[in-house]
Amino acid sequence: MCMSGGLGPRFLKNQFAEEQAQMQTSQVERSTVRIVRRRLLPLICTMFVAAFLDRVNVGFAAIQMNHDLSFGPEVFGLAAGIFFIPYTLFEVPSILVQARVGARLWLARIMVSWGVVASAMMFVQGPTSFYALRLLLGLAEAGFVPGVTFYIAQWFPERERARAIAIFALGIPIAVVIGAPVSGLLMGLDGTLALRGWQWLFVLEGVPSVIIGFAVFFLLPDRPRDAKWLTPEQSSWLEARLATEGAAKVHAGVGRALTDRRTLLLAVAYGCSIFAVYGVTFWLPQIVKAVGSTSDITTGFVTAIPYLVSGISTYAVSRHSDKTGERRLHIVLPFLVGAAGFAAAGAIHSPMGALAALSVGAAGVLSASAVFWTLPASMFAGAASAGVLGLINTIGNVGGFVGPVAVGAVKNHLSSFGPVMFLFAAAVVVSASIVGALTAAPTNHANRKAPPV
């Protein structure tokens, strides 16, 4: 009894000290994650808005440009897709360079170079110059998406990562929601200073990327210890947490990581989804115009509708995935919903009904894609992780080339966009099947470990 009575106060004192330490750590965690979100995510999302808009604004320009330069569906489809050839070939080298020199310098270089090329699209005069500038744009932008995804993995703990990637991915719907009406308005500058509307569109939408690129160089820190807006306690906690999570991952060589069966299958899954995303995105303005839009400005606003829906669903799905710690169903189910939407869009003859179905298709695929990127980011550590992200994007973006080309071929031979929607639906079902087969039981993020894939 005497021993018990002597230990009681000491035990309570130690327990109280542990609880106080846990509370302090929790406070540091909350404050650190909050300030990292506030400082990094708006800039990262803005970067993707500029990137995606410069990548796909050719779809809006085509409403005038195809007529001016006598481009048929196959010429436009090939030029839209040819962007992905250099983009694909140089993805892995680009992200490996970033792993060595740092994100601040490399991402700034990517943005400035693609902004210059995007503006130079105003000088297109025929198929040859069209193809050449699209190739240069793909080369300039190579490594951007996996580079930012790798950067996010270096700043956000795993339980916060899906939401962070989703906010980055919101750049796609935001780019279209803002860019579609703006592109329509810019086309209205037709004739100003003897330039066509599509030329104004290219030059004025390319310049912001150059400006943002310089901002990235000055505002984007490479590592938590470089961030002047974090206290020493916050940066130490964040780097320790990321190091602990990294220790649970596979520390493999780059070569082994790139040939891992899971890496290759996830690349195929991503490619099938991208086949649908870019097949729709590049051609959507022309699809809207074909079903009766009366002006370029109206076309821009109508084109934004599916992406407005996508933006809302992407954030909601990713936030719920982080909250529950579950990844598998938050990828597979939205993919299947997206496939159903695309199939319905192909079967419905009413313009408004087809647009509603297309909105469901886009929302499903983009919502799944945001959570999808948490899987490869959690498989490997260090340079191997960077290489895996690059390879998945590399192989996957073959779908980005095939999608627009397939739409152009079908449109040229069948004079209809309907049949290709069924191809998009089938491709997205393949994506869902692969992810469903690879991922195991839902991850409980109490253990803070990577989800098994």
Would you write up a description of this structure?
It is found in: Membrane. GO terms for molecular function: transmembrane transporter activity. Pfam families: MFS_1 (PF07690). Keywords: Membrane, Transmembrane, Transmembrane helix, Transport. By secondary structure, this protein is mainly α. It has a single domain, classed as MFS general substrate transporter like domains (Growth Hormone, Chain: A, Up-down Bundle), CATH 1.20.1250. 81% of the residues lie in helices and 0% in strands. α1 packs parallel to α6 and α14 packs parallel to α20. The chain starts with a helix and ends in a 15-residue tail after the last helix.
What tags apply to this protein structure?
453 residues; mainly alpha; Growth Hormone, Chain: A; 81% helix; 0% strand; globular; disordered N terminus; transmembrane helix
